[in-house]
DNA sequence: CCCCAGGCTTTTC
DNA sequence: GAAAAGCATGGG
């Protein structure tokens, strides 16, 4: 087992980061020492929090996708981003009370996750609670993903790879729908999209190109069944490193109305209001990191106002 | 029994 | 064009 310790200058809340609803591929292990596990790009990873300013990464490998483990983790957890810069320059003066409420949430990071894994995860996230989304993705991993076990401090941990596009492309719709809350349409859409990725019709590597305009990226993703504006923006934000993408769901709509007194946010969420709200939010956020800020606001809203436990 | 949950698609006016 | 109904299930 390779073991790395990473020290950071600004605090990071690993638990918030992994379980704020942006990632559905991590498992929690509670014990005397709390730790988190997943398989990223076929590499087992176990993270243990030492303090706000230090955490430990364990893995059987020394690199992930050819990138040294330490470097990969720093990139994966976006340690290069200063979360406070995700808001507009004068945000703290415009919304002083909200700024105080947000303080504890600046230790929340958005991750640079695998594009395909993110696409499938968020295709499971339509009009359904976070608990059920996590359950669906866990079932997909357990049903289709290769099983693997690693030992950590003398304990066996069972891990599951996220299924490959080829694996889900070949899946039986009836069997897969058992993983998608018995929703056959969703199962069909996931299979079709997986076939698209496997056959190269959906080229996620090309879509990673930061020079691609956001609206164009969104329109390309929306050509696939089961992907609308919101899911497309989630894939862009969490899976394609597009921190300028600002997904708008019921929670975002709620806090835009409540915290920012948006009149558009009080209308029903159709494509027209979606685009209006998208533009509106960029006026008080840093447009280049609007989605990053949006996720911090999203999590703060759920935790502080709605009192929801996301994990 | 009601409503809502990280929405999208199809139908109808 | 915009608005309304259907999808599936768990939890409050």
In short:
The protein has about 300 residues and is of the alpha+beta class. Helices cover about 45% and strands about 15% of the residues.
Features:
311 residues, alpha+beta, TATA-Binding Protein, 5-stranded antiparallel sheet, two-stranded antiparallel sheet, 9 strands, 15% strand, globular, DNA-binding
**Global Rg:** 19 Å
Silhouette: globular
Tally of strands: 9
Spatial order of the strands forming the largest sheet:
1-5-4-3-2
CATH class wording of one domain: Alpha Beta
Major sheet size, sense and barrel closure: 5 strands, antiparallel
> Helix coverage percent of residues?
40-55%
Identify the CATH architecture of one domain.
2-Layer Sandwich
Q: Output mean pLDDT.
A: 96
Structure classification: alpha+beta
Describe this protein's structure.
This protein has helices at 14-19, 69-76, 91-94, 96-102, 115-123, 130-144, 165-169, 173-176, 184-199, 204-207, 214-221, 229-239, 250-260, 271-281, 290-305, and strands at residues 2-7, 27-29, 35-40, 43-51, 54-59, 63-64, 67-68, 147-152, 155-160. It is of the alpha+beta class. It has a domain at 1-80: TATA-Binding Protein (2-Layer Sandwich), CATH 3.30.310. The strands form 3 sheets. It has a 5-stranded antiparallel beta sheet, with helices on one face. The chain has a two-stranded antiparallel sheet with strand order 6-7. A hairpin with a 2-residue loop joins strand 6 and strand 7 (67-68). The model has no long low-confidence stretch (mean pLDDT 96).
């Amino acid at each position: 087992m390779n073991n790395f310790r990473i020290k950071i200058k600004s605090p990071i809340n690993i638990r918030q980061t992994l379980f704020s609803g942006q990632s559905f591929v991590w498992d929690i292990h509670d014990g005397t020492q709390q730790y988190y596990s997943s398989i990223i790009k076929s590499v087992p990873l176990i993270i243990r929090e030492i303090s706000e300013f230090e955490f430990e990464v364990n893995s059987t490998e020394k690199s992930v996708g050819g990138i040294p483990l330490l470097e990969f983790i720093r990139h994966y957890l976006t340690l290069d981003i200063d979360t406070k810069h995700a808001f507009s320059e004068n945000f703290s003066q415009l919304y002083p009370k909200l700024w105080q409420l947000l303080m504890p949430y600046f230790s929340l990071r958005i991750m640079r996750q695998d594009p395909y894994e993110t696409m499938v995860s968020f295709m499971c996230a339509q009009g359904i609670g976070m608990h059920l989304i996590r359950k669906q993705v866990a079932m997909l991993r357990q049903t289709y993903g290769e099983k693997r076990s690693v030992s950590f401090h003398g304990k066996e941990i069972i891990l599951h790879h996220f299924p490959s596009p080829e694996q889900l492309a070949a899946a039986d719709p009836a069997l897969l729908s058992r993983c998608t809350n018995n929703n056959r349409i969703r199962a069909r859409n996931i299979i079709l999209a997986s076939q698209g990725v496997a056959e190269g019709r959906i080229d996620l590597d090309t879509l990673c190109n930061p020079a691609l305009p956001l609206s164009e990226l969104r329109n390309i993703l929306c050509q696939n069944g089961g992907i609308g504006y919101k899911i497309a923006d989630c894939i862009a934000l969490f899976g394609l490193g597009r921190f300028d993408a600002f997904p708008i769901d019921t929670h975002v709509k709620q806090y835009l109305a409540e915290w920012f007194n948006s009149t558009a946010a009080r209308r029903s969420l159709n494509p027209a209001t979606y685009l209006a709200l998208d533009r509106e939010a960029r006026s008080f956020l840093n447009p280049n990191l609007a989605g990053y800020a949006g996720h911090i606001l999203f999590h703060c809203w759920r935790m502080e106002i709605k009192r929801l436990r996301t994990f």
